């Protein structure tokens, strides 16, 4: 049975999904979607403004909250596909397409040199696949992961995001052709290098290799691990050793100055596309709980919220997206935390940007960045202002209708 029929048959309009949804407040979204998805519907029957399908963050909170696992997102996804067929690809859909002149990571890479990883191209047991974001935009993520692997003495090589894209973000935006074109080439390269393990940072890359590629190209003979899973394995194998007291370090650096008792209380931000989409939420928490002298305020993903970046909302409704990101700081503070840990380049960028709108935003660290520090490595260079401005400038240059420009870029 197709998704629409199943939904129409099983949904009893209980409202649990809209109660938790950060975008839609009333059940009219469901009837609007039913109307638009009806085969006989005309293009102009697109949902009305407050139910605009571009407002969905694809966070999946509605799906996990629905007693029947229906939710709203699945309907939104097929509505987005239908809209693409009716009206053609949008400019936004080209942003993560590796073959598009509109690709925002290529633009950023032209303005600021991407990360240069050592070990590119050689045969190795382990391959690190940082993805476009950790190679060109959130460079601290890619650099910190490589530092950890160096410190642990891993034999690894890198498939940099400058040369290799997984295609999953374009796929998620309703444009499957890049993934279909490059997926097999990526798999062939991993086989050529003889790797047994592929480590991905980005939740989108993880989903591509773990879920989408096996469905499209068949089973692979290498293991796919997200950074957090790999770090947890290194800890268990006693290869990753914590050499720095992070409480002392963050206090000395005044990162946690002003907290009640100087304790370092971490809030782990569950990326929607890892936690709810592919079920990874225990490994990052195990890793963080292993770090001496820090505590974790949210031991489960219960009540976790979307950072506002996903589903293309940051590109179409930037103010709304950033306001949603600012809420993560409040959520973390209300849980008694004084540091936010992210595990996705998009979440990190957005939560930093959301924090800039607040008087007392919390410090934000990427998981690999935090663990690299805890291993005793020197701090990885980062420039949050540049990160936010470059990303916004790429949108300004790529999207003809994009006008959000609080940073004064051209
Ligand atoms: S929570 Fe599920 S059953 Fe209830 S209205 Fe939403 S989709 Fe329908
Ligand atoms: S995926 Fe998130 S934003 Fe989209 S409808 Fe569901 S809860 Fe709302």
Automatic annotation (TrEMBL):
This is Lactate utilization protein A. Belongs to the HdrC family. It comes from the Archaea. Gene3D superfamilies: Alpha-helical ferredoxin. Residues 126-209, 268-350 form the Cysteine-rich domain. GO terms for cellular component: plasma membrane. GO terms for molecular function: 4 iron, 4 sulfur cluster binding; metal ion binding; oxidoreductase activity. Keywords: 4Fe-4S, Iron, Iron-sulfur, Metal-binding, Oxidoreductase.
């Amino acid at each position: 049975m197709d998704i629409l029929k199943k939904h129409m048959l099983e949904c009893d309009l209980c409202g649990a999904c809209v109660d938790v949804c950060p975008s839609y407040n009333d059940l009219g979204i469901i009837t609007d979607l039913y109307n638009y998805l009806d085969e006989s519907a005309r293009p102009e029957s697109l949902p009305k403004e407050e139910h605009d399908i571009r407002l969905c963050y694809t966070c999946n909170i509605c799906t996990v909250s629905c007693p029947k696992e229906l939710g709203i997102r699945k309907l939104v996804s097929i509505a987005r596909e239908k809209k693409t067929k009716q009206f053609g690809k949008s400019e936004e859909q080209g942003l993560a397409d590796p073959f598009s002149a509109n690709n925002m990571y290529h633009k950023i890479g032209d303005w600021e040199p991407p990360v240069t990883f050592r070990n590119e191209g050689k045969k190795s047991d382990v391959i690190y696949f940082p993805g476009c974001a950790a190679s060109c935009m959130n460079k601290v993520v890619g650099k910190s992961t490589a530092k950890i692997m160096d410190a642990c003495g891993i034999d690894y090589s890198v498939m940099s995001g400058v040369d290799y894209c997984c295609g999953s973000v374009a796929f998620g935006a309703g444009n499957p052709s890049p993934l279909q074109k490059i997926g097999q080439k990526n798999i062939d390269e991993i086989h050529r290098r003889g790797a047994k393990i592929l480590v991905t940072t980005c939740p989108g890359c993880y989903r591509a290799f773990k879920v989408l590629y096996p469905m499209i190209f068949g089973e692979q003979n290498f293991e796919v691990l997200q950074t957090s899973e790999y770090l947890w394995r290194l800890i268990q194998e006693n290869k990753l050793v914590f050499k720095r007291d992070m409480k002392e370090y963050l206090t000395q650096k005044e990162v946690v100055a002003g907290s009640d008792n100087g304790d370092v209380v971490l809030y782990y931000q569950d990326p929607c596309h890892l936690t709810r989409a592919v079920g990874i939420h225990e490994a990052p928490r195990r890793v963080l709980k292993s770090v001496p002298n820090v505590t974790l305020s949210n031991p489960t993903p219960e009540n976790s919220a979307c950072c506002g970046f996903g589903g293309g909302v940051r590109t179409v409704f930037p103010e709304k997206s950033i306001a949603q990101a600012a809420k993560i700081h409040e959520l973390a503070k209300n849980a008694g935390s004084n540091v936010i840990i992210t595990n996705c380049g998009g979440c990190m960028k957005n939560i930093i940007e959301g924090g800039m709108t607040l008087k007392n935003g919390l410090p934000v660290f990427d998981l690999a960045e935090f663990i690299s520090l805890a291993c005793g490595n020197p701090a990885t260079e980062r420039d949050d202002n540049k990160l936010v401005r470059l990303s916004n400038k790429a949108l300004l240059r790529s999207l003809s209708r994009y006008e959000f420009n609080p940073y004064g870029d051209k």
